[in-house]
Amino acid sequence: MNTEIIAHPTLQHVGIMTPNLDAMLEWYRKVLGMTVNKRVNVPADRAPFTAVAFTSNDEINHRISFFEAPHATIDSERSRHARVQHIAFAYGTLDDLLGTYVRLARLGMTPMWAADQWFQTAIYYEDPDKNIIELNVDNFTNLWAVTEGLKELPPQLHVFIDPEKLIAARKAGASPWDVHVRAFAGEFVPAKPYDLGRSY
Predict the structure, then answer these.
(1) Strands lying side by side in the sheet with 35-41
(2) Residue 60 scores a pLDDT above 70
(3) What is the CATH number for 24?
(4) Assigned domain for 177 exists
């Protein structure tokens, strides 16, 4: 038994408290492909929530657990308070990320904003409880290169992008790397700036 050296556990799941359990489960199903592996009602004398649902979109038994608290309120001033700022999910390819953007747009789900962040490209959405969910893809070829890219992050941090322009570039034959280079150079900025008042 190691009692001296820090063991490095893997992040397994997050828990989210919500007054809108059904709406949240449906949103995460549509966006991330989350499946409910178990949902249980909780007796009133057992916990400060009435139900819990364990969801996953891979082989892990649960990646997000949702706790239903009907009397919980959504904090309209959350950007000014200490909190989890966002939760991120990674895709393996730029086309998977952009394809998801198209699929969600067809469902009427539009992002808050999107950016090329040098080491990754990311699109941000807001769930029914106003939690920020980031969908991203690495811009470099392997995990080591991505980490080095993060360490060398330029001062501007990111360049806002219009996903539609990235899609057009891919359809015109640009490689994912070329799309990244052109995006960070400012070629794919949105025609209308994003409203960032509630996005951080």
Answers:
(1) 14-18, 64-68, 51-56, 35-41
(2) yes
(3) 3.10.180.10
(4) yes
CB 35, CB 55: distance < 8 Å? yes
- pTM of the shown model: 0.93
pLDDT of residue 198: 58
- Contact (CB, 8 A) for 55 and 25: yes
The β-bridge relationship of strands 14-18 and 64-68 is parallel
Classify residue 94: in a domain, yes or no: yes
pLDDT at 199 over 90: no
Give 126's contacts (C-beta < 8 A, 6+ positions apart). Answer: 112, 132, 133, 198
Distance CA 122, CA 69 (A): 31
Range of the domain at 26: 14-68
Q: How does DSSP assign 18-37, residue by residue?
A: ES-HHHHHHHHHHHH--EEE
pLDDT of 102 over the 80 cut:
yes
Answer left, alpha or beta for residue 114, where phi above 0 means left and psi between -120 and 50 means alpha: beta
